[in-house]
Write a structure and sequence with these properties.
This protein is an alpha/beta fold and 138 residues long. Helices cover 51% and strands 14% of the residues. The radius of gyration is 15 Å and the shape is globular. The protein binds 1,3-dihydroxyacetonephosphate. InterPro entries: Methylgl_synth, Methylglyoxal_synth_AS, MGS-like_dom, MGS-like_dom_sf.
């Protein structure tokens, strides 16, 4: 069986409640991914939803850069990053690094709930489609 795709989940403090609410709504879909997250976000997803999450450092301590590095390595399916547009962030350069890594490597990044929903639902649709390889072989 192929490995589940990697989905990164990140939220600033002012948006964590929104991310947890999103995760509650789509928990079954999220369980179909290998989830990675920045430290505090990941801990909340574990505590509140019992999701299996690989946690990196907290954002201000380099977690965004660690996830950017995974993107550069080429094994991230998509990123859900609920950015707080009203907050000031001491690690703004790290945030820009993560956004830039997604844009350089053409990795989907959702910064709001509507787009995040499209990303996780698209994966479910893909999974329900017939396998094209096996069609070709018949
Ligand atoms: O700061 C963040 C993203 O820039 C998120 O980090 P935490 O999940 O550790 O709060």
């Amino acid at each position: 069986m192929p490995e589940a795709p990697v989905l990164a989940l990140i939220a600033h403090d002012g948006k964590k409640a929104d991310l947890i609410s999103f995760a509650h709504k789509h928990a079954d879909l999220l369980r179909q991914f290998q989830l990675v997250a920045t430290g505090t976000t990941g801990q909340m997803l574990i505590d509140e939803l019992d999701l299996d999450v690989v946690r990196y450092h907290s954002g201000p301590l380099g977690g965004d850069v660690q996830i950017a590095s995974r993107i550069v390595e080429g094994n991230v399916y998509a990123v859900v990053f609920f950015i707080d547009p009203l907050g000031k962030h001491p690690h703004e350069p790290d945030i820009q690094t993560l956004l830039r890594a997604c844009n350089v490597h053409n990795v989907p990044i959702a910064t709001n709930e509507s787009t995040a929903r499209l990303i996780v639902e698209r994966r479910a649709v893909q999974d329900s489609l017939p396998n094209r390889d096996s069609d070709d072989a018949s």
